[in-house]
Amino acid sequence: MSEGRSPGAARTGPRILLSVEDDGWAALLSRPAEDMVREAVFAAAGGAGLAPDVETEVSVTLSDDEDVRALNAEWRGKDKPTNILSFPMMPLQPGDRPGPMLGDLILARQTLAREAADEGKAPDDHFRHLLVHGVLHLLGHDHETDRDAEAMEALEIGILAGLGIADPYADAPDAPERHSGRDPW
């Protein structure tokens, strides 16, 4: 999917390049991935304060555990799959204006499905949550310190509420640990 704008139309978010590299995504999600990716990326960008007319691009790859495991091992030294990997094109601080390419997001279908089932979440909601989380990382948000984690989590919760998704941390007794630097995101 290449997301652009028609002549004269106002941009509502970053241009999105979507690649689906695992056929199982269509069966996992209840709606077209393209629609949910657009919703989540635009909501995250807007919620983080990115002006709608900023010309930037984000690449989203819907992959599988095997490919994400290999990338996680190569780039993070962790030889296991994770739900999403975020690769910013350049390091940003929250509020910085991105360049023409914001970065890449790669999601692992099996890990996402397993987490959604284990946590009693709808796969669609977990998918959009991970996309929001990943876009926030691309825009410079992080959770390395407790203060940063609290700010990022509050931003996520607000963005997700706008998408009709309940607070994903409300019933998670380990939520503070999830954002203590040990987070797989």
TrEMBL record:
GO function terms (MF aspect): metalloendopeptidase activity; RNA endonuclease activity; zinc ion binding
Assigned keywords, A-Z: Cytoplasm, Endonuclease, Hydrolase, Metal-binding, Nuclease, Ribosome biogenesis, rRNA processing, Zinc
- Species of origin reads Aureimonas flava
Gene from which this protein is expressed: ybeY
Q: What is its EC number?
A: 3.1.-.-
Q: Which InterPro entries does the entry mention? A: MetalPrtase_cat_dom_sf_prd (IPR023091), YbeY (IPR002036), YbeY_CS (IPR020549)
CC per GO annotation: cytoplasm
Residues recorded as binding Zn(2+), renumbered to this chain, are H133, H137, H143
> Which HAMAP family does the UniProt entry name for this protein?
Endoribonucl_YbeY
Q: Member of which family? A: Belongs to the endoribonuclease YbeY family.
Task: Give a short account of what the protein does.
Answer: Single strand-specific metallo-endoribonuclease involved in late-stage 70S ribosome quality control and in maturation of the 3' terminus of the 16S rRNA.
User: What name is this protein filed under?
Assistant: Endoribonuclease YbeY
Protein's cellular compartments: Cytoplasm
Cofactor dependency: Zn(2+)
Bound how, and how many: what does the cofactor note say?
Answer: Binds 1 zinc ion.
GO aspect biological process, one term: rRNA processing
Coiled-coil region: none
Sorted alphabetically, which Pfam families does this protein's record hold? YbeY (PF02130)
